[in-house]
TrEMBL record:
Protein known as: Flagella basal body P-ring formation protein FlgA
Entry-linked CDD domains: SAF_CpaB_FlgA_like (cd11614)
Functional summary from the UniProt entry: Involved in the assembly process of the P-ring formation. It may associate with FlgF on the rod constituting a structure essential for the P-ring assembly or may act as a modulator protein for the P-ring assembly.
GO BP: bacterial-type flagellum assembly
Name of a matching Pfam family: ChapFlgA
Keywords: Bacterial flagellum biogenesis, Cell projection, Cilium, Flagellum, Periplasm, Signal
Lineage: Bacteria, Pseudomonadati, Pseudomonadota, Gammaproteobacteria, Vibrionales
Domain SAF: 126-188
Domain of life of the source: Bacteria
Subcellular compartments: Periplasm
């Protein structure tokens, strides 16, 4: 074989190796592409998963009395591995706290052996007592000072009121702006050093007397009061405007 033929043969082998290398790289890329595409979630699949998570929240979380509950599932990465489930998707969560702003829902398909955790954002609205105008600190609240509005309950830092009658006659402990939600810490249904009616209940009988509140109190709170007749200090629960009930 001549020198020219040897060079030609060597050149052909080198080109062949380069061609094969490029060919295998192309095949590997195509295999990876089709493998990735076959396991990536479609938009229809992600929507079904999101709806399953949202329906779980709407079905299993307590709605605010007289209000609404909205559930919005987070976006799902389309690169996740899921398949069409031949059976209804199973949903569950370790939390059912109705006051939570976010709850994670487990969505799974046992038949296809996949599961996915989906964060869901909760928006709760409910009727709350709000002011119709500005109210000064120490002012006695009247019915004209209040109204009921539907508000985002996540924005209410403390317990509010859903019934205007609960705070008519109460006194404000701070200045309130027009349209502000009235929270339990903003008013005293029973105020410190105020004369109150003490109701003593035992075996179906009720005895009333007068006393002096030693601390502020809202509806349902336990406070200390001093009996005006006996000077005895007792604890009772606030049950109304300037009213404390003691159960023996």
């Amino acid at each position: 074989m001549t020198y020219h033929n040897l060079r030609l043969c060597s050149f052909s082998i080198t080109n062949c190796r380069a061609f094969c290398k490029k060919f295998y790289k192309s095949v590997a890329f195509l295999c990876l592409f089709f493998s990735f595409s076959s396991t990536s979630a479609t938009s229809e699949q992600t929507i079904v998963i999101q709806q399953a998570a949202e329906n779980y929240i709407l079905t299993n979380i307590d709605w605010p009395p007289g209000g609404t509950l909205l559930a919005k599932a987070a976006n799902i990465d389309s690169r996740i591995f899921v398949t069409d489930c031949p059976a209804p998707l199973k949903t569950s969560s370790s939390s059912t706290n109705p006051s939570a702003s976010n709850i994670t829902v487990l969505v799974e398909c046992s038949e296809e052996n996949w599961k996915l955790y989906v964060p869901v954002r909760l928006t709760r609205t409910g009727p709350q007592v709000t002011t119709t105008g500005p109210i000064s600190r120490g002012q006695t609240i009247s019915a004209q000072d209040l109204t009921i509005n539907m508000v985002d309950l996540q924005r209410v830092r403390r317990q509010g009121f859903s019934n205007i009658e609960d705070i008519i006659g109460a006194k404000t402990k701070k200045n309130l702006r027009s349209g502000e939600v009235v929270e339990s810490s903003d008013v005293c249904v029973v105020c410190r050093n105020e004369t109150v009616t003490i109701k003593a209940q035992k075996s179906g009988m009720t005895i009333t007397t007068k006393g002096t509140a030693l601390t502020d109190g809202a509806h349902g709170e336990q406070i200390r009061v001093k009996n005006s007749k006996s000077n005895r200090i007792i604890e009772g629960r606030v049950t109304g405007i300037a009213e404390v009930t003691v159960v023996f």
